[in-house]
Each structure stands twice: as structure tokens, then as C-alpha cells.
Amino acid sequence: MTVDPGILWAPLAAGLLVTATHAPLGIQVLNRGIVFIDLAVAQIAGLGVVFADWLGYEPQGIAVQAAALTAALAGALLLNWTEKLWPDVQEAVIGVTFILAANAAILLLAANPHGAEHLKDLLIGQILWVRSAQLPTIALISAAILALWFGLRGRIGRSGFYLVFACAVTLSVQLVGLYLVFATLIIPALATRRLKRGRLVACYGLGAAGYAAGLVLSALTDLPTGPLIVCVMALLGIALMVASPRLPVQGREQV
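and the corresponding C-alpha cells:
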């Protein structure tokens, strides 16, 4: 079976843009020990999308995007506040926040005849349906996020980190789905945690290889694209970890 590159280039570009912002943020998340924050914030952003849809707004309209961003920023500020208030149980608070947002979305979708489909799209995404017309806007927003992160990361503080993170996740969760957001954020950062040099470059390489190989395999096998990319990225991450077992474990290095 042959693969038409014309079908895959827009989804691949979307995956690379998600990797561009999530690789450096993933290293920071791993260093902070708040691994599941992206699931919580992404689920809150998804809840904003579901709520706007419940109110009757168009799925791709500006109102839905505003609802997703507003929800994600509010969730990020809430988690920033709880980290100050209860730093010893922050991971548990993040988990509870995720569960609450997920179940609130299920309740809002309960009366929707297409609720199951919407929930599936939120979780595994529709990366194959990314349109080339979306990419310039996504690229500009991603570039702004990266410029803010690399230019001001030493001065934005904890609150700034949460807000930048919320913007990145809001953009990506509607693009590739909740599972791929988590995989792109955590798997490359986890697989490269022992690298003393070139860690960020290795994260980018692993993310890009996972998206490229997953997309091609999906086209060849007709298996669901999002889950296949997650599995391929995980296998590549394991291979990278096995290939470098003797490297010293890295401390809380800022990349």
C-alpha cells in the first residue's frame, strides 16, 4: 500500500508544532514534579469547548476558542494558587481537578446525541483532519509561546509558567487531542532525562520521529492515528532510554 505524502504533510506539520512548544515545557513539568498538570489543564480547556458547544456556538468559531482559553487560564491560575497553598499535595489536587473537569464534560455531553463522538475527539483528537489553512495561525501562536518562554522564562515565575502552559495546551488539545498532548509533553522529557547535553534537541527528535512514523504506519495499516502515534512515541522513548543506560541521572536542570 502506497502512502500519499500530500495527505500527511499537514498532520505532520501540526505534530511538529505541538512538539515545538511541548518539548521544553515537558522538561520543566518533569523537573517540577507536576507530571499530570497537562492532563488537568487540557481537560479544563476541553471542558470550555464542550460548554461552548452546549451553549450552541459553532465548533470552530471564535467563541469556542475563547471559552477554551478562558477555561484553561482559569484552571492554570487555580492550580498555581493551590501549589502555593498546598505544595505537598499538589499532584493529588491536579488529579482531582482532572477528574472533576472530565466528569463535568461527560455530564454536559449526556443529552447530546453526538456526545460520545465529541468525547472521543477530545481524547484522541482528529489530527488527520488538520487543514493546511490552519497551520499559519498555529505556527504564529506557537512562535509567540516559544519566544515568551525562551525570552522570559527566568523572569515569568511560577504564575507565568502556568499561564504560558495553559496557552500551549489550549492550542494543542483541539489540534491533536488529550492523549497526544500528554504523550508529546511527557514521553520525550522522560526518555531524555539522563542526557547531560543536547536534551532539548533529543526531545525534538523523538517527538518528530514519533509523529512521522505514527502517521505513516496509520496510513499503511488504517489503524487510529492518535493512539498509534502515542504507542510509537512510547516505543521510541523506551529504545532511547535503553540505548543510554549508563548516563548519569540529571538533576533539576533548566533547559
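(Above: one complete record from the training split.) The chain has one domain: 5-243.
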